[in-house]
Design a protein that fits this description.
mainly alpha; Arc Repressor Mutant, subunit A; 3 domains; disordered N terminus
Amino acid sequence: MKSKPRPPATRQQGKKFPPRPRPPRRKDAAQDSMDDVHVAMPRGDDDVGEPDIAHLSQVEEEFLDGSFEKHAQDSAELADDPVRLYLREIGQVKLLDVDDEFRLCACIEAERFLLTLRRVPLRTGVDLACSVYHAIGRELHTSWTRLAEDAEHLKADLPDLALTLTEAQSLHLTWESKAPSYLRSCLASEMWGTNQLWDSLVRKAFSVFLCLYLLPADYADWLLKHIHAHHDLPVLRTLHAHLPEDSMLEEEMDAVHIRAEEAHHSLIRANLRLVVSVAKRYLGRGISFLDLIQEGNLGLLRAVNKFDPRRGFKFSTYATWWIRQSINRSIAEQARTIRIPVHLFESISRIMRAQRLLTQELGRDPTVEELAIEVGFLPTADVQTILRAHAENQPLDAAMQRRLETATRRIGRALRSAEEPISLDGPVGGESASHLEDFIPDEDSPSPLDSAVRDMLRDQIRHALESLTDRERQVLELRFGLADGQSHTLDEVSEFYNVTRERIRQIEAKALRKLRHPSQTRLLRDYLG
């Protein structure tokens, strides 16, 4: 199928990739740090999955109605001078349009593709750079052939190969251009992201674009002349035969790395204001504004490393989802003294949101049953059955009542978990002289009245024992633990005094008879009655 003729593309002079010294080889492009933002890459893979189409569509609608821009205004008035300085600095960076994002992401994706090819095992005697560019040639030829087949199957226009090559090579000089992206305009369709056949065509077109971008400039000029002359790619043997020397190929691979690094930083710097816009929505959740921005920056870094421009969404739409996930995870793990599990934290957020909405609608605080119906802890069919029964003043059947009670118990547990802990050292009243712990009774310690009665009883017993001889008093103190609080047996006391057990029993009996005299029991009667 012949490609549709297009007007020639012109190169716009914009922001250029500055030349840099040749960097050392690196193992993984995703491990770069963003020094300008002063944040670190998160270690390990996050357990949060990829956002689905529904989430991204919802975020995209919020961008279209301008709600994020509204929250980004006057953020500097909410915190201290460091935040003002930070916001002033990031406010000087120009925002990206969808075509700029597409070009920057293409530079980043091209390096990932190049790193994948470099991991392919080499044949004996073949140089790494030569092997990589042979693979690029094969991928270019295969993707272009399959792209033409998909375009014919969908009855769509095939992108102009010469214009695609020109746009891809223009990224060697600059990613910023006033002209819209030719390839993205060709692929833009309502089917992008919703139709599998169209998505397959997009993947092949983007693969062609990446292969053309990775070609050295002189080699691309030769290829462009061939395309103008023959309106198609040369055969694979001709592509390989015209490859430049290995040293030039290695220099081009290093240049791809440099441009990807610049694109990575530019994409992050241009979206730092987006982080502030999202972070402002989470003020008052127990984490400072600067910490919210820091966590949002980590989410932005994750988005840059995981974004796939083939899906058709704007990068800012995709990044917003990851920024929210990072901030929500941070709030769930750090905002409270007692950590709440993430799944329970999400349930609490849904309950609080439903509680605010029901309060506005009903003009009163909603009941736990109303919250259970609104939050979605019950299936839709059960909710409709319960609402119908309430409208008709009919009782619920036993099974439905049990499910409703289970949902209300879940609501109750979540609301109890949402309660903030109180410090025992917190001041009570307007002055800090008293603390909360001073008003909490100790159930294990005796009351002041019991302590006073016990002290008085001890004094009366001591006074009664004064009427006994020293030996009798000592024997009673050992037998009943009046001295050290531990009672002893007759054998232990007899061994202590080196007398017989019977003699100790006689001394004890004689002492107790003396204490039973009315003159002695009078002192202890009030305590023993």
